[in-house]
Amino acid sequence: MLSLPHLPPFRSTIRGPWLTSAFGAVLLVALPVITVTGLLSYIAYGPQFGQARPAEVGWLRLPSFAWPTDPSWIYRLNQGLHVTLGIVVIPLVLAKLWSVMPKLVQWPPVRSPAQALERLTVLMLVGGVLFEIVTGVLNIQYDYIFGFDFYAAHYFGAWVFIAGFLSHAAIKVPVMWRTLRQTPLSDVLRERNGAAETRPDDETAPKGISRRGALALVAGGSGLLAALTIGQTVDGPLRSTALLLPRGRTYGDGPNDFQINRTAVAAGIDPASTGDSWRMELSGTRAVGLDRAALESMEQHTAVLPIACVEGWSTTQEWTGVRLRDLAALAGVSEGTATVSSLERNGAFARATLGENQVWHPDSLLALTVNGATLSLDHGYPARVIVPGLPGVHNTKWVARIDFVGEAAR
């Protein structure tokens, strides 16, 4: 007769309802923040223009609205919070799973229809959160390593997690609240190592750290991950310690020494196409061609603006160039949207559509210089778009053409 393998007892004197509830309470706050900022990131990509990733999601499509340009750091805040908090909660998620491991592997796994429903919510919750963490961290560390569309997988994975989270929270939050009220946090923080939450039947179970020690261990792990992550969102000395957001610490010389997501080589830029023969085409009610000298002869505007990438890194620099609204006027358009096309040949973001509020913001630029120096090729030379609050991938580099669509100028 086939017999089941012997399952380990998972003995611990601190594993029990209180510790599980404590970890769950923190995640009950953190996970919704991570989820909401993640969904807002998809909205910021501009689904009203058909450029959200993924583009086709059926009835799961998010509501669209004009992503704000003020404050200019809004996307930087959104993605910094999403990625940093998503990494910081990893020890909490692992600790929570450890605390409930005996129940996850109990046999038989289902004893009643009600328990079957609960187990389904647990499967969606645990599977969803682990999938989101693993794919998210790998996407931060490496460029396009998946054999599938990361954006689509991460998006649909988020909805599986959301369904599991809401269902499980409805079942477990009342129990969690009662458990935490029965034992005040102040009592737990006075415990010494070896104190038990519940006495196991086997008195030989190892006596380890206290619940206070477990909380400190998890908090320390999360604090360490925060220190190794947050520097890519906050400019300053912590930039060099951001080992878990490794993309682009040095990509130029002097004023051009700041992060990029893709080099000119990775984007398939032919250096010859950015030389003296380069011309940028404008279209609206009339067509205009401009070389770099013509752009430099126009009125220049300087703005201090951030670039923020979906992977979490961001940086603030001083950009100088021609306002997009001045280029629109040159093309004979007084209001409306614009589509920016790049010389880029490799990648999914060679075109970006800008909303009306983005085109006509006074700090939206076709940048020619950064920090007083000419753009390097990796940073978009001969010209790149910089728009307040816009996701980094839509601040198009190596601009070849801008098509303005809207009311004719009078």
From TrEMBL:
Keywords: Membrane, Transmembrane, Transmembrane helix. InterPro entries: Mopterin_OxRdtase_euk, OxRdtase_Mopterin-bd_dom, OxRdtase_Mopterin-bd_sf. The chain crosses the membrane at residues 21-45, 80-99, 120-140, 152-171. The keyword Transferase does not apply. Pfam families: Oxidored_molyb. Residues 273-407 form the Oxidoreductase molybdopterin-binding domain. This is Molybdopterin-dependent oxidoreductase. It comes from Rhodococcoides kroppenstedtii.
